Amino acid sequence: MENMQFWLICFMLGWTIVDGSEMEQDFTWHLRKIPRLVNERTFHLTSPTFEADAKMVLKRVCGIECQKALPAPSLSELEDSLSYETVFENGTRTLTRVKVQGLVLEPTQNTTTKGTSVRRKRQVYGTDSRFSILDKRFLTNFPFNTAVKLSTGCSGILISPNHVLTAAHCVHDGKDYIKGSKKLRVGLLKMRNKGGGKKRRGSKKSRREANGGDQTEGSKENLKERARAGRRRKAGARGQRVAEGRPSFQWTRVKNTHIPKGWVTGGRGDAALDFDYALLELKRAHKKKYMELGISPTIKKLPGGMIHFSGFDHDRADQLVYRFCSVSEESNDLLYQYCDAESGSTGSGVYLRLKEPDKKSWKRKIIAVYSGHQWVDVHGVQKDYNVAVRITPLKFAQICLWIHGPEANCTYG
């Protein structure tokens, strides 16, 4: 049964294994020159109230027809959207304005979202194609070990020894920080140790004293009863050991949170969803293998047009849930797809596995953040999709600045 699960997951990950080697189409990461973001000035803001509900509300998001009528964003508008808020562990908050250097503006693609105020509870399309990862060999190894859970109920992904990438709405609803995000924690998946705990040891004399001294007829009867109770405890311990083989979370406090100003204010008034991503800095570094960032390629350059992501869907009781699907539509900032996903998986890192340039090795990189269900206006027709926010060159530069500080040097990505 375990071998069957192994081969099934390999198949779902897009691997074809022949004599231990992986054979795939020749898709390659194409490195692009990244514009540079530099901090210009930092302002202290009033502390947030942390009173928002844990859900995203988008009341005004530009549809495809209105998007066509919009001029391309100016450099100053982009700089305003990419400026960012930082909330610290003690509840204080700052706003940092940035300058963009070395930017080449690209033409705007047509498809974009048209808002609704409430997400659907159900985000599974037709037959549920999600797969719960239960095998320890996969849970504790790359790429599945990079998935994390937030104390606010979302998912995220490890992108450095100290940082987690997630969706902005997991900590901020666009107006205020949500309840519970003031003491935000990140849960790293681990396996419980097997065994029923420490055994109590002692000398025969001490056990006799604990049992009441000399073994009289009454005490012998008591010993028999204790023996029966001991057998019951052992049986319970066996059940406990089974439970201890299940995954659990090691929780770590968040030191600070970065959110783009484009999410907090909606940027140009209509583009909030394009900036639904946030970076969390952990108070304590982890030792797990993390996943690097990559620039999101176009649909034509996705292997089979497919994307992958794993998260902790609410309907699967802390199980890590993996899924993959093809991308249906795209804009400059968003990917529209029908990956089955329930609430709780939002904030997951969407990734690809492509070949490294001039090498025979393959590498997975995060190319988007899963945001959730939205309605999309396509040529006047309302369609519903599950949406992911793409990692563009500008967003790559911003996240690089958040991770590495003013000395950040992310020339290519």
**Overall 3D geometry?**
globular
Strand content: 25-35%
Q: What is the share of helical residues?
A: 10-25%
Mean pLDDT, to the nearest integer, reads 75
Largest sheet: 8 strands, mixed
Q: Kindly, what is the distance between the CA atoms of the first and last residues, rounded to a whole number of angstroms?
A: 41 Å
CATH topology title: Thrombin, subunit H
Unreliable sequence segments: 14-24, 110-122, 196-218, 235-245
How many β-strand runs? 19
Family: Belongs to the peptidase S1 family.
Biased composition (Basic residues): 191-207
Biased composition (Basic and acidic residues): 217-228
GO biological process, one term: proteolysis
What features would you describe in this structure?
The protein has helices spanning 2-12, 64-69, 75-82, 136-139, 204-210, 217-244, 261-265, 393-404, and strands at 17-18, 21-22, 36-45, 84-88, 93-101, 131-133, 147-150, 155-158, 163-166, 185-191, 247-260, 278-282, 292-293, 306-311, 320-330, 334-337, 349-355, 362-378, 381-390. Mean pLDDT is 75; it is low at 14-24, 110-122, 196-218 and 235-245. Strands 6, 13, 14, 15, 16, 17, 18 and 19 form an 8-stranded mixed beta sheet that branches. Strands 7-8-9-12-11-10 form a 6-stranded antiparallel barrel. With 413 residues, it is of the alpha+beta class. The radius of gyration is 25 Å and the shape is globular. The chain has one domain (29-103, 128-192, 245-404): Thrombin, subunit H (Beta Barrel).
Tell me briefly what this model is:
The chain is α+β, with helices and mostly antiparallel strands and 413 residues long. The protein has helices at 2-12, 64-69, 75-82, 136-139, 204-210, 217-244, 261-265, 393-404, and strands at residues 17-18, 21-22, 36-45, 84-88, 93-101, 131-133, 147-150, 155-158, 163-166, 185-191, 247-260, 278-282, 292-293, 306-311, 320-330, 334-337, 349-355, 362-378, 381-390.
